[in-house]
Specification:
The chain is α/β, with parallel strands linked by helices. The chain contains ten helices and 26 strands. It has three domains: 2-108 and 238-305, FAD/NAD(P)-binding domain (3-Layer(bba) Sandwich); 122-235, FAD/NAD(P)-binding domain, CATH 3.50.50.60; 325-421, FAD/NAD-linked reductase, C-terminal dimerisation domain (Enolase-like, domain 1). Strands 3-2-1-7-19 form a five-stranded parallel sheet. Strands 9-16-10-11-12 form a five-stranded parallel sheet, covered by helices on one side. A five-stranded antiparallel sheet has the order 22-23-26-25-24, sandwiched between helices. Helix 1 (10-22) packs parallel to helix 7 (291-305) and helix 9 packs antiparallel against helix 10.
Length: 422
């Protein structure tokens, strides 16, 4: 059996290792389009602040790891898939046949069409090459403007602030992390960042980057003009699925998959940031681009690729964020459902906020700031779709009783897990 895995990020590496473990005689090809050894993009902020070197971003550290496992690591980028012929065409013109294919091509930064954005001094923060360019410019005291204050943007922002730059952040939404946090929580994160010395512009967009003078000037829709030595573009990502155009593999936002991570073409699977899988909490297929999802999807896809029928239990909608020391979390349908009930508890003086969203007697989503002791419980209740019964009304009256509710209901429904390990 010949397996080709497109994408050498966490999903691709885990899939390759899983196939090798369960099918030791099969051919496994892991295809990446960057010159470095397979690495984790989530480690790049730690590289920016000097906690790790470039080798510390690598997913595997043993000498000749892939060679020892018999995984053939290739440098190429897929440009065309012929699903009927079971072949992939690469950017160098080569054509490769497969018996099983995994699409784990991840995502790429979405660059907004802003005048002046193309040119020196403007970078995404996505690859090791980007990180090198940013470190060369983000010296102490440098003026840095970051476009985007979503989940990824806030992680990058923390790394930049640690480097001692003079940082301004521009977010089109009316609050920080608008796709993860409600108005109260997003506003609290903004206030926290401003108190830490970050200049935050919400409800504003970058209209142009003026390069006519000795220094870049970033012009905002609110009338502000920000001088910049470096501009970071963190305005979102899009799945790398362009090469699937005109193929039989169906794509919506990402590559549509079933519970086995198989696409609409038998023998072709998808996993990670490019895959669209079923979310049992929302009842819809979604792309949830976080590394725990990539890892589990890769494992399930790989097992099915070697004939071990395995179903994905569902994607995880979970984000836990450390923003300059402020811990926040978002789970499931944090903005609620039509006809659902919700409760909020906010103590801005102590930096705490808790918002719970219910559908019937199930907790379907939540936001939290400062409630770190409840992170595992919130995840367990949301992902387990636990029936709370009378405990729903108790939580509406006092949302801090999450642990008691979890112990009383999840254990009784045989979905109890050790929340201390979450």
């Amino acid at each position: 059996m010949r397996h080709i895995i497109l994408g050498a990020g966490p999903a691709g590496v885990i899939a390759a290792e899983t196939i090798r473990k369960h099918a030791p005689q099969d051919d496994v090809f892991l295809v990446g389009d960057e010159p470095e050894a397979p690495y984790s993009r989530m480690a790049i902020p730690y590289l920016l602040i000097g906690q790790v070197g470039e080798a510390g971003t690598h997913l595997r550290h043993g000498p000749n790891h892939y060679e020892r496992l018999g995984i053939q690591l290739k440098r190429n980028r897929a440009v065309k898939l012929d699903a009927a012929a079971k072949t992939v065409t690469m950017d160098d013109g080569s054509v490769h046949a497969f018996d099983r294919l995994l699409i784990a091509t991840g995502s790429s930064p979405a660059t907004p069409p802003i005048p002046g954005i193309a040119g020196a001094g403007v970078h995404p923060c996505w690859t090791l090459a980007d990180a090198r360019a940013i470190m060369a410019l983000a010296k102490p005291g440098a003026k840095v403007v970051q476009m985007g204050a979503g989940f990824i943007g806030c992680i990058i922002m923390e790394a930049l602030a640690t480097r001692g730059v003079r940082l301004s952040v521009v977010e089109m939404g009316d609050r920080m992390v608008p796709r993860m946090m409600g108005p109260t929580a997003g506003g609290m994160i903004k206030a926290w960042c401003e108190a830490k010395g970050v200049d935050v512009h919400t409800g504003a967009r970058v209209e142009a980057i003026d390069r006519s003078g000795p220094q870049m000037v970033v012009k905002l829709s609110n009338g502000a003009a920000l001088e910049a030595d470096l501009v970071i573009s963190a305005t979102g990502v899009k799945p790398n699925i362009g090469f699937l155009a005109d193929s039989a593999v169906r794509c919506l936002v990402g590559v549509l998959t079933d519970e086995h991570l198989q696409t609409t073409v038998p023998g072709i699977y998808a996993a990670g940031d490019c895959a669209e899988a079923f979310d049992k909490v929302s009842g819809k297929t979604i792309v949830s681009a976080i590394q725990p999802n990539a890892a589990e999807q890769a494992r399930v896809a790989a097992l099915n690729m070697v004939g071990q029928v395995t179903a994905l239990r569902g994607v995880t909608q979970i984000n836990v964020l450390d923003t300059l020391g402020l811990i926040s979390a978002s789970f499931g349908l944090w903005d609620g459902v039509p006809g659902g009930q919700h409760v909020e508890l906010t103590d801005k003086a102590s930096g705490k906020h808790l918002s719970l969203q219910f559908a019937e007697d199930r907790l379907v989503g939540c936001n939290a700031i400062g409630w770190t002791e409840h992170v595992g419980v919130m995840r367990g209740l949301v992902e387990g779709q636990v029936r709370l019964g009378a405990w729903k009304d108790k939580l509406l009256a006092d949302p801090t009783k999450l642990m008691e509710a979890y112990l009383a209901t999840a254990q009784a429904q045989d979905v109890f897990t050790d929340v201390r390990r979450r």
